[in-house]
Amino acid sequence: MNATELLDKGGPVTWILIGYSVAGLALVLERYLHFLRMGRTPEGLVDRVRAAVAHPDRIAATGLRGPEAAVARAMAEGIRAGASDLARVGNRVRQREVHRLERGLGTLGVLANTAPLLGLLGTVLGMIKAFRVIEEAGGRVDAQALAGGIWEAMLTTGLGLTVAIPLLILLHLLEGAVERRAHGLDQCVSAILEERGGGRTTEERDPVPAWEGLSDAG
């Protein structure tokens, strides 16, 4: 039995689960390439950000890229403009960059968590089919016909778990990468605020209308 026959045997739920798998892997690949383009967090991150803030015209020379460069650029602009609350500037851009890092992870979580439920739905539909075979046979069970419904039920359960487990693992890895990057951004903002001798800590992250458009990451 080839793959197409296997999927046909499993019923429509199997095709939906295959779609889940393709969509989930596409999201994972997109996030992986995004992190790959950003590169690893450089050594001596805090010192690099301090240097970038001190010399904003030479940010590229510090080796900062992505969200770290955006934070440095925003805070340097805030210092130059005489921002009264530099913490708000740093926290605002930090929030924005973390949101960009998390893009697509919510959808990935929905796919991973609903795949087993779809598998269960396929199981229920398969068992309904099996019992209908018994009913239509008037109690005289045709083993071959009955096996078709049971096969569909078991296949969708297994496929749902097969799709969900890898997606959940990959989601966990991506969330960990985002968390580590966000922690690094917190350290950078805190270090600059301490060096400048003021402002609130990065734990205070209120929305700020001003400075919202500062320093989009390139």
Description of the molecule:
The protein is mainly α and 218 residues long. It has one domain (3-196). 75% of the residues lie in helices and 0% in strands. The chain is built from 7 helices and no strands. Helix 2 runs parallel beside helix 7.
What is the SS-derived class?
A: mainly alpha
Note the gap between the termini: 51 Å
Over all CA atoms, what is the radius of gyration?
A: 26 Å
Tally the structural domains. 1
Total strands: the figure is: 0
Determine the mean pLDDT.
78
Feature tags:
transport; cell membrane; protein transport; 0% strand; 75% helix; 7 helices; 218 residues
Q: What is the element layout, followed by pairings?
A:
Layout: H1 3-10, H2 12-38, H3 45-54, H4 66-81, H5 86-101, H6 105-136, H7 143-196
Q: How would you concisely characterize the structure shown here?
A:
By secondary structure, the chain is mostly helical. The chain is 75% helix and 0% strand.
